[in-house]
Amino acid sequence: MGMKPTPDHWKPPLVLVVGMGMGAGDLSEEARQWIISAEVLAGGTRHLESFPEHGGGRIPLKGSLHSSLEQIVEVSRQRKTAVLASGDPFFFGIGRRLTALLGKEKVLALPNVTSLQVFFSRLKEPWDGVPVYSFHGRDASADPSSWLPRLSPSKPVAFFTDPWRSPDWMAREMVKAGCVHWEMAVGEDLGLPTERVRRLDLAQAAEGDFSPLNMVALFPTAPQEFQEPPLGLPEGAFHHEAGLITKMEVRVISLAHLQLHPGQVLWDVGAGSGSVSIEGARMVPSAKIFAMERHARRFENIQENVRRFRCFGVKALCGAAPEVFHGLPDPHRVFIGGSGGNLREILEGVARRLKPQGRVVQTMVSLENLEEARSFWRQRGFTVEVSQIQVNRGVPIGKGLRLEALNPVFVMAVFKPFQENAELHFLSEMKGKEGEGP
Asked: Per-residue DSSP letters for 142-193?
């Protein structure tokens, strides 16, 4: 990395990116000396107006950043260029894009206090460990509920909003989805004379009017009895039809075999009550899960359970497999809990769509289904692992206890042999998405 240069030794093509904090008043004397030494200033209108006496060139950052960034790249080859950024340039800021364009060796960053720090200080709340997401740069036409899985029932979550996803819009989406045990805090115009910080219930926020310059924090308010265990929910916690639910012990083992990773797509075929989908979503909130059920009543149970557990990353679909697969993203993981007599067609549909290094887990009670599924996957070069789960639960008998057996269940896990390059590619892909938000 070498020694940090000083303003007196600044030479192009080194670009300075300096965090303004909440405004020019937060700048250190060192940062001011760097800015004075610059021959070109780039930044938003508000930041550029903080230096009316600066006689250098100016590159306003507005609208699409692409053309402005191209100007910075071109100008910085010959002239000392400073980019003025909000807060900390590398906390949901322009720093990432600058280093991607210029290379890290051509960027010097001077960080500052972030709006998140100021916001939580105003709220008198700790912010260490708070997940933070940004709507900026996201497609405004994307699924409006895709951010809801980011909500945690046990800790605050913070969001940088944008003109389309405002605090009142967020509150309305939460109410529509059945998220009732939350309080919303909104910080508006932080660091400006018009600054305002409020804590609101969702009904108040849904009717509110907010400054475009704002950020949101959501605080869970559910009583302790609503804090379900992180894994292994009892069958009684779900709405289900006549015992048609994957038993807790089988569910936990099936999820272990699925090995669901963040961001992956899971198909839950013959989902019944949706218990596997919901447990998967609670374990991996960023997974995209599709729970498919052909029976209307069971489909309604899935919808109710999704609302009950606030697992908004689960999308319930009413339809028969494999027809219901049409239009869905290809899966990394597939759980088959029921086939409705169409096992062969379902397996063929899954085999056509399963991503490389994908995994399939299927639960069965009959030897015939086990052998059909096992033969199907072995003929295609997959590794097949089979376990039988026999659960006996204690039930009272007089003053004592006896064991009552549940039906034995086969759990079959199907996967391709490990290929290092493919796995490394996936991990690299996921690392590149870190910190990008919903």
From this structure: S-TTTTGGG--SSS-EEEE--SSS-HHHHHHHHHHHT--SEEEEEEESTTST
The tally of CA atoms less than 13 A away on the side-chain side of residue 187 is: 22
Please tell me the distance from the alpha carbon of residue 438 to that of residue 423, in angstroms, as a whole number.
24
Contact 226, 154 (CB under 8 A): no
pLDDT, one tens digit per residue, over 132-155 is 998 876 555 555 567 887 887 778
User: Hey, CA dihedral for 195, 199, 204, 206, is it positive or negative?
Assistant: positive
**Rounded distance between C-alpha atoms, residue 223 and residue 60, angstroms:** 49
**Sequence-ordered strand ranges (E) for 2-116:** 15-19, 40-43, 57-60, 81-85, 107-110
Per the listing, tokens 């999308």 go with 315
List, in order of start, the domains of the chain with CATH numbers.
Answer: 7-113 (3.40.1010.10), 117-225 (3.30.950.10), 235-431 (3.40.50.150)
Alpha carbon distance 199, 369 (integer Å): 56
CB-CB contact of 263 with 434 (8 Å)? no
Distance from the Cα of residue 289 to its chain's centroid: 13
Counting as low any pLDDT under 50, the low residues of the chain are 225, 420-425, 431-438
- Which residues, at least 6 apart from 34, have a Cβ–Cβ distance to it below 8 Å? 7, 10, 16, 18, 82, 110
Residue 143: other Cβ atoms inside 10 A = 12
CA dihedral 120, 123, 125, 131 (to 10 degrees): -40
By three-state DSSP, how is residue 397 classified?
Answer: strand
- The confidence score (pLDDT) of residue 117 equals 92
